[in-house]
Write a structure and sequence with these properties.
The complex is a heterodimer of chains A (160) and B (467). Chain A is of the alpha+beta class and 160 residues long. Chain A has 3 helices and 11 strands. Chain B has 16 helices and 5 strands. Classes of the chains: A alpha+beta (160), B mainly alpha (467).
Chain lengths: 160, 467
């Protein structure tokens, strides 16, 4: 095989190698900037607010739908938050909708939010975890009326 | 809040199409390299290119389909990068096989490596299918730690342990030799991540401040001293500088990430400095390595000498910017060109251009691992991703640094490139774990916004209530 052919083969291979590397970089680039951002981030106002604000005002609590979140056991029993203000933040921090004085609760412990007609509780990476019934949740979990959600030593429930 | 807020509005796409596109390119790199080896060394496209290419394609497609099914949101770049490096490594091994054969010392490194790669991909698939949530691993924190230490000790046991090339890091089971240390490092990452996620508050908050640096409390030094002890044990007993550096560096990096305190780096750096000094003074091997690094040419003819390193440097210099082309270099002059020194073969035959591409691939793998750690929602996943990324980063730095003469040479495998079954299989599992964490991290949470769609749904709500 002639010198020139070998040279061309080598060049072609190096070209393929670099095309691969540059394509990988371009995929990473598009992954960084090209992710589909829902209306939420684009307008600065979160989508629930944009879409939901008008709806929220007119929304009447349906029969049987929970209206508030209540602390049933723990340091601050009786504390409640209206679900109309969802998403609700639960934690020890001052920005929490339900502020708990429980040492076992993280500053931003969990979040209660709606998706359609269902209510979800989502753990926000708390230290001691969020439990629905006896189970420590690892992803947003549906909760219904009267289902006990435990954060730290506190138990919360959705109530009508 | 602001950080989570912005990240929550940020929906990751699945990007499986992009992954497929990159995988096709990665296969072009792997199979193209194999063809180029045949053309360069034998003057013809290898006869088994269809079978070889088909096998490689089958493995990659199987991995891709698994990712599509069980981890649809996983990072799209990791798998192609790994596939390209592995393919390139196979081709270079094939090239060395051909040379050794012509010298009357036949080896089948490429064939064996392909077998190991098959096993690696199978374990990759098994890991992804069985492990649906990486947080399950947190339950096995101490089990993993114990297993990791046990695996490190295994080579010393009389029946199974074996010493090859002066390093006692092998075990021999049923005719196969295996480096348990490669598996141990994955186990230790799980153990460190689980331990640090629980104890980081104590490690991060307590302490006193000395000249701009927060130094940790004496009583919190326990784990770092224990890990230092383990690293030193590896160094002294196994005579394996690379692994010792890898384990201690891994622990230090994870400790730093978990606590955000530079004080740990100072303590760790001092410990490492002291350990390195002690090793330099008492272990003759380490002293030699330093001398070879500082004055490679002086020890060319000595025994033990720097022959290997000098030949590798000659090779890379002879390769220049674009290399000599496959078949036109003399990689056989470098002992162990198929394992630790595979990069010098690449440097000689494909030149600096290819070495830069390879290093960039490793850089991208590490970047992706750190990116996964950034977007992961749970602390355990974050630490695990950092740890897995650190393993690859440290290994690559130590090996490539050693081969190019940047730092004293220590024996470690180049991930995915070098010949070595244990390392290859373990690294495929590492990639599977990274993909699993990234799938969890990039998967959008259920849309948690109040959408008012009263209608037939209200019926179901009532049923729930009545029950």
């Amino acid at each position: 095989m002639s010198e020139l052919t070998l040279f061309l083969i080598r060049m072609a291979f190096l070209a393929i190698l670099w095309i691969f590397v540059l394509s990988a970089i371009s995929v990473i680039r598009s992954d960084m900037f090209g992710a589909r951002v829902p209306e939420t981030a684009r307008n600065g106002a979160p989508a629930p607010a944009r879409k939901g604000k008008a709806a929220k005002a007119s929304r009447k609590p349906r029969r049987g739908a929970p209206t508030h979140l209540l602390v049933v056991e723990g340091e601050n029993p009786g504390t409640r938050a209206e679900l109309a203000d969802a998403p609700l933040l639960i934690g020890r921090g001052s920005d929490a909708a339900i502020k708990l004085d429980d040492d076992y609760v993280s500053t931003r412990h969990a979040r209660i939010a709606a998706s359609g007609d269902e209510w979800f509780v989502e753990d926000l990476g708390s230290t001691n975890g969020t439990y629905v019934g006896p189970v420590r949740i690892t992803q947003p979990t549906t909760i219904g009326l009267g289902v006990q959600v435990r954060v730290g030593k506190t138990i919360l429930e959705l109530r009508k | 809040m602001s950080q989570t807020g912005t990240l929550m509005g940020f929906v990751h796409r699945r990007r499986r199409g992009a992954e497929l596109f990159l995988l096709v390119l990665a296969l072009a790199v792997g199979i193209g390299a194999y063809a180029a080896v045949g053309l360069g060394v034998e003057g013809a496209v290898p006869a088994d290119i269809i079978g070889y290419g088909g096998w490689l394609t089958g493995l990659i497609v199987a991995a891709h389909i698994t990712v599509r099914i069980v981890a649809p949101y996983a990072d799209p770049v990791l798998l192609p990068l790994v596939a390209a490096l592995n393919g390139l490594g196979l081709a270079v091994l094939r090239r060395l096989d051909l040379t050794y054969e012509s010298l009357g010392d036949p080896h089948t490194f490429a064939r064996q490596q392909l077998t190991w790669m098959t096993l690696g991909v199978v374990l990759f698939i098994v890991t992804l299918v069985l492990l649906r949530d990486h947080r399950v691993l947190q339950r096995f924190t101490y089990t993993a730690g114990l297993l990791g230490i046990a695996l490190l000790i295994l080579p010393f046991l009389p029946l199974v342990g074996r010493e090859i090339n002066g390093a006692r890091i092998w075990i021999n089971v049923a005719g196969f030799s295996f480096q348990p240390g490669e598996v141990a490092k994955v186990m230790l990452v799980i153990a460190f991540a689980g331990y640090l996620v629980l104890h980081r508050d104590a490690l991060a908050l307590a302490g006193r401040r000395v000249v701009f640096v927060d130094l940790p409390r004496g009583r919190d030094l326990g784990p770092i001293l224990a890990m230092f002890g383990v690293s030193m044990m590896i160094l002294v007993l196994q005579n394996d500088l690379g692994s010792s550096l890898l384990f201690f560096g891994l622990f230090l990096a994870m400790l730093y990430v978990a606590t955000e305190r530079a004080g740990w780096l100072v303590v760790g750096g001092l410990l490492f400095g002291a350990g390195a000094l002690a090793a330099y003074t008492f272990v003759g091997n380490v002293q030699n390595r330093f001398n070879f690094w500082l004055h490679p040419m002086d020890y060319y003819d000595a025994s033990p000498g720097s022959y290997q390193l000098v030949e590798a440097l000659f090779g890379q210099g002879w390769g220049g910017l674009i290399g000599r082309g496959f078949g036109n270099g003399f990689p056989e002059r470098v002992p162990f060109a198929y394992s630790d020194f595979i990069l010098s073969t690449i440097g000689e035959e494909l030149g600096l251009t290819a070495i830069m591409a390879v290093i960039l691939c490793y850089g991208l793998i590490v970047e992706r691992a750190l990116r996964i750690a950034l977007i992961s929602r749970d602390g355990f996943g974050k630490l695990m991703a950092v740890g897995l990324g650190t393993i690859i980063a440290l290994q690559v730095f130590v090996v490539i640094g050693g081969v190019t003469g940047l730092i004293p040479l220590t024996g470690l495998t180049t991930p995915f490139l070098s010949y070595g079954g244990s390392s290859l299989v373990a690294n495929w599992v590492v990639v599977a774990l990274l993909l699993r964490i990234s799938d969890q991290a990039r998967r959008p949470t259920p849309r948690l916004d109040p959408v008012d769609d009263a209608g037939e749904d209200s019926e179901t709500t009532q049923v729930v209530k009545l029950r």
